[in-house]
Amino acid sequence: VGQNYAAHAREMGGDPSRAPPFFFTKPGDALVTDGTDPAYPTATANLHHEVELVCAVGEDGAIAGWAVGCDLTRRDLQAAAKEKGRPWDAAKGFDQSAPCGALTLGALPDPAAVIEIRINGERRQTGRLSDMIWSPEEVLVEARRLWAVQPGDLIFTGTPEGVGPVVAGDRVEATIEGLQPLAFTLSPPVDVSDGRRG
Ligand code: MN
């Protein structure tokens, strides 16, 4: 979900009025589960962190669990795509662009929990889940207007203000009170020009 916190919408040049949520997608191989360090991606000089609450869709179609995620973004490619009105796939949906922590099943422990990210120990983003313009349940309703949302689908629900760059070697620690933390170190770039990740 794009621009679901008002202050982040403003920092990206958007309008935080309550327009319907908008979506972009990441392929399944964007997902990086906790414990694995993603590689700094090719073709960018401005990779950004976006800490997000992730909701997981269960067998009954409702939200079954929650996690801390990081929507890694090639901000330079996104800016170029925005300028030309082109798709965001290369900016958002690249390999290993969606690190995600372990799921906590059941109800969200605290709907007003603090969401934060630290880079090398320095706090860069902080907010509260209650700052979201659209709640996770409202986001899911809107997504169902557009797709047949399937069990196992993961929805990243947007990021608070304070997005910024990360480089290879940076330690990323993302937390939401009541959920399992997400931590990883960005590893050096990998040459994928032969179609493989080594
Ligand atoms: Mn995001």
Strand percentage lies at 25-35%
What's the arrangement of strands in the largest beta sheet? 7-4-3-10
Q: What Rg do the Cα atoms give?
A: 16 Å
Mean pLDDT: 95
What is the β-strand count? Answer: 13
> How many strands, what sense, and barrel or not for the largest sheet?
4 strands, antiparallel
How many H/I helical runs? 4
**What is the string of SSEs from the N terminus onward?**
HEEEEEHHEEEEHEEEE
Shape: globular
Portion in helices: 10-25%
Question: Spans of 5+ residues with little confidence (pLDDT < 50)?
Answer: none
Distance between the termini: 31 Å
> Which structural category do the helix and sheet elements fall into?
alpha+beta
Tell me which ligands are bound.
manganese (II) ion
Question: Can you walk through the features of this model?
Answer:
It is a single chain. This protein is of the alpha+beta class. Helix content is 16%, strand content 28%. It has a four-stranded antiparallel sheet with strand order 7-4-3-10. A hairpin with a 5-residue loop joins strand 12 and strand 13. It binds manganese (II) ion.
What would you say about this model in short?
The chain has about 200 residues and is an alpha+beta fold.
List the helices and strands and how they pair.
Blueprint: H1 6-11, E1 31-33, E2 47-49, E3 51-57, E4 63-70, E5 73-74, H2 75-84, H3 89-92, E6 98-100, E7 104-105, E8 114-119, E9 122-128, H4 136-146, E10 154-156, E11 164-165, E12 171-176, E13 182-185
Parallel strand pairs: 1-6
Antiparallel strand pairs: 2-5, 2-11, 3-4, 3-10, 4-7, 8-9, 8-12, 12-13
Bound molecules: manganese (II) ion.
The site of manganese (II) ion has 6 residues, from loops.
